Amino acid sequence: MKEESKYLKDNISDVKTSIINNTENRNGNDKIRYIITILSFIQIFLSSGIILGWPSLANMIKSEHIFKFPRENPTIPSLAEEVYLAELMNSSLSWQMFSTIFLGFLIDYFGPKFICICQLITTIGTTLILIPERDGVIINFSYIGIILQNLCGCIYIPTFIHMSNLFPSNKAMIISTLSTLYGFSSCVFLIIQFLYDYFSIKFNYLIGTLALLQGLFIVFSFMLPSETFEEGDDCGFSLSKGGFYKIKKNIIINNEINDSFISKLKLLIINTKILINHIFSRLFLFQFMLGVFTLISVNFYLSTISLQIEELSHLPEGELRHNQGYFWSTILTFIAPFGSLIGVYQGYLIDKYGLTLSSFVPCILLISCSLFKLIPYVPIQILTFVTYTTSQEAIFGTIYSLIAFNIPSNIICRFSSINLLLQSYPAGYFPNLLISLFFENKLTFFQINLLLVFPTFIITTLFVIYLYYKEENKIIPNQIDEERVDLV
């Protein structure tokens, strides 16, 4: 950061520092700020974290018998089919996180407008689910569709996180809302399953409607600004300028400097050094450990919730046992989004009390989840599911706030991409490893869940201690440095 400041002071001699007076147009800009933010919220809801609604989608896939696994009873999925779908979810998430390394760098290079390509991929994926597996057809379009539909999900939050700079006094709350909507998007498939089960609307019609709604946001994405918003910036809208555009509030940079190849090259080198320093920092290590372990725990639980409830029901194999798992997994998927609303409240707590104090509650909830899973009583799993969803959204709200408070806006997508890329392998491999312990090694879910209790306690405790250390040493800033000038 010091190198960047020195370079800017030495080289920007002809910067025009005229103050932009926005008071006359403030009401108009306020409306535009709210419009772009609300539309971004809706886009994340429809497109980002759909994988969290996997239990509902999996139930419909099994009902439609999209993957042609042999069944003894046509109405009851085989165990092999259940395990295949659980592994497909974890593989899809792993691909989602792996893709962020490319998408993050592209979004940082081309600006937020590049998210229109991600939205296109998501829409194509949703559409491909409509093509069922057929005998003699080598390509499994539904499998590819599920992968593509979730491929870009993780990149939506870091792409839109810069919009929190439009609301400086409520920055953490906006960030936490973005993170929460990733979880709340499980409602999408929950609503679809409700219409499918109770109104007998065809699966193809419902998925086709979702694809159409997602397609509409390709247009919105194309109208996003080509630059990220910095602290204190405002937003305008003009069709002649291609849609939404950034209004610099305090500083106007001379175009000659902005367009200089040497200046851009030097800033690229400086920003790369800053990025590397952040990657090899304690901040990265501790947020990575908590984030990846939360993903492993939650994804294993989500992908096997139906099987776990079937085991806890103590019913013999058969239709009644399957119906029990189907019923409770649907109920839990319905409850989950409302539990995730606590993520928005977490943002309020961060703005008011700081990261350390606000992180106690989600970390305690995560530890509680690991213990609740051990209680062999089906209704307790409702509490476990809600607690998991609540703690997950609050934890990721805390993590993204930590990142946004410490990482410059112009490299935040690259930082998040590398972070998610490194998380992709363990987040995909370990849930499938735990599933194999059940399917191949014949361990019970109780035994598997017991293995996760101790690391949950250790990792959450280390994270809270780290935040306390940073705040005690005043390393976490309360706001982004207003003196920093960004030329990229």
Kindly describe this structure.
There is one protein chain. The protein is an all-alpha fold. The protein has helices at residues 2-11, 26-47, 54-64, 79-110, 115-128, 141-151, 156-160, 171-184, 187-198, 203-222, 255-259, 261-279, 282-303, 305-313, 319-339, 342-353, 355-372, 378-406, 412-439, 445-451, 453-472; strands spanning 234-238, 243-247. Strands 1-2 form a two-stranded antiparallel ribbon.
**Class per helix and strand makeup:** mainly alpha
- Helix share bin: 55-70%
Radius of gyration equals 23 Å
| CATH level-4 homologous superfamily | MFS general substrate transporter like domains
Organism: Cryptosporidium andersoni
InterPro entries: MFS_trans_sf, SLC43A_AATransporter
Keywords: Amino-acid transport, Membrane, Transmembrane, Transmembrane helix, Transport
Membrane topology: Multi-pass membrane protein
